[in-house]
Amino acid sequence: MTITRRNLGLLGAAGAAMLAMPSVVRAQAPRVVRYTHFQPGRLDQPKHAAALAFKSTLEGLTGGRMRVDIFPAGQIGPAPQVMEQLRLGSLEMAVVHDGGISGTYAPYQVFSLPFIWENQAIAWKVLDGAFGAEMAEDMRRRANIRLLGHADNGVRHFTNSKRPIVTPDDMRGLKIRVQPAPVFVKLVESLGASPSAIDWGELPAALAQGTVDGQENGVTNILAASLYQHQKHITLNGHVYSLHAYLMSDRFFNRLGNEEKAAVLQATEIAKVIHRGMTTAQDANAEPILKEKGMTVQRLTAPQIDAFRQKAQPAVRSWLEAEIGREWVEKLLSATRAATAG
């Protein structure tokens, strides 16, 4: 066959088109959001139900231009590792509990001030208002992590295998597991018990082996890890309103187009509502849920709770002010007073 100049031109154009094809394919490939959290990958778990809602919403809003891959149950790694990956931009998104955040962004410890919020409605006013926005901007600036929103990790209560706890004096002599965050160590010490910092993944074994007598967590986490199997008693004292934060690498977020950014924010709002609703329902029904699991439940009166507050709050506040500065503590208390009055 004689190759004419015209044929050479056609062959050249075809070759150029073939060379260009990989870049076209790459341009059409979805932008992947790797999304990790620390609860089991089951629909009865608020974190996972919310993650699935985020995935469905974001992929729908972007017409498949963004894809969400979910990694439940800490599959990416422990919280400090996840936070570092978010900071560096090597992980796109995570929902992390409050204790896991503080090692990277210390001011988040302020939410561990005990007995500050009477109910979820007050907490949400503070978190969704000016205080929450100021903290989000500070985290973005200092840690390169974008705080998209807050949801519940459950109102935290004390459980143990030894005896009912009704007064702070009942805590004396008990070995209580706390998450690896110094502020929780100070909280338990202030009530006369012996704190032991143990990672979440090691907690069931520590309770089963008697390494510790008890622990403190919300209903959601007690159910998620079946902690009731090794804990006979729970006291519904609600010492800390624990949080989960929806976090995204700021580097990743800034690479998104305006429509994609808006879709991420909208998907987060939907996930947050589901997450909050499921956790709040479990907290509100703590007594029947945990009695059904075989636990004895102590529901404290307001004066009994105040006895815990009088011992714990001054000690923890003093520690927090020394650790992160008085400004964040004062701002949180001021925002709480305004939310309560409003």
UniProtKB/TrEMBL annotation:
Heme found in the keyword field: no
TM region positions: none
Compartments, as annotated in UniProt: Cell envelope
UniProt xrefs under Pfam families: DctP
Signal sequence, start to end: 1-27
Keywords for this protein: Signal, Transport
Family: Belongs to the bacterial solute-binding protein 7 family.
Protein name: DctP family TRAP transporter solute-binding subunit
